[in-house]
Amino acid sequence: MPATKAVHAKTRLWAAISVISNVAGNSALTYGMHELGAIGNTPAALIGALFHPWVAIGVALLIVWTFAHMALLSWADLSYVMPVTAIGYVVTAFAGKFFLGEIVSPARWTGIVLITAGVTLVGRTAPASAAPASAIGGKPR
Amino acid sequence: MKWVLVVMCILATTVGDVFRSLGMRHHGEIHDFRPGAIGAMLAAIARNWMVIVSTCAMAVSFFSFMKLVSIAPMTFAVPMSAATFIPETLLARFFLREDVDWRRWTGIGLIVIGVVFIAQ
């Protein structure tokens, strides 16, 4: 497999892991937080919420997301990873439709089409273009 | 309170992502995904100050977002989370020196508008 194709394939695999763990993690977290109701503003209350089962599952999945995101950023640009993983917004909308029976309004369909077009456009660029770490902060190319 | 959380979220996520990108670039590309190698990699990045700054910022971002979704509807919180795309892209171009061409700018613009629609 040519090097560029291999980089694209590896990037897509880790972007998929990142998106799935992020969407599932945020969904579990939101569900858990809604089950808990009002928890107050204190750090102790926020930390206490972490022991709720759905919040804990959400946090575990977000730890997977953190690792996948770090792995991606070890070879790919931030301006590539950030928009490409935005497909998660579309996955969330479809998950709402198929799992929760939510109605996807025309405005939502418009959003889905715009995000998919944006992700496709960015996905066609090379994942890595950045200067070496030693050159960071200098004059932009 | 709502807007304080929004500002905290945007600032913390931006700082977190930029320093994570910087720290991981310093660390170098991850090739080996076997458990032992992942353990060694985590031990190495735990001593990387840029990754430590990023992790602290991400923790602030996480708790701010957690609080935000508990007091504001998702239709408000979700588009606000996409507001980080603009400062992060500017920093990627001018600080991280990435090659942000017209396809990336257009794509990011479409995504930001799309997120506003999808949250309706």
How many helices of chain A?
6
Rg of chain A, rounded, reads: 18 Å
- DSSP, total strands of chain B: 0
Low-confidence runs of chain A: none
Largest interface summary: A-B, 58 and 56 residues
Mean pLDDT of chain A: 84
> How many helices of chain B does DSSP assign?
6
Summarize the helix and strand pattern of chain B as letters. Answer: HHHHHH
Q: Give the beta-strand count of chain A.
A: 0
| Percent of residues in beta strands of chain B | under 5%
Structural class of chain B: mainly alpha
Model description:
The complex is a heterodimer of chains A (141) and B (120). Chain A is an all-alpha fold. Chain A is 72% helix and 0% strand. Chain A has helices at residues 3-36, 43-49, 53-73, 78-84, 87-100, 106-123. In chain A, α1 (3-36) packs antiparallel against α3, α1 packs across α5 and α5 (87-100) packs antiparallel against α6 (106-123). The mean pLDDT of chain A is 84. By secondary structure, chain B is mostly helical. Helix content of chain B is 80%, strand content 0%. Chain B has helices spanning 2-27, 35-45, 49-71, 74-82, 85-94, 102-118. In chain B, α1 runs antiparallel to α3 (49-71). The radius of gyration of chain B is 16 Å and the shape is globular. The relative contact order of chain B is 0.16. At the A-B interface, α1, α3, α4, α5 and α6 of A face α1, α3, α4, α5 and α6 of B.
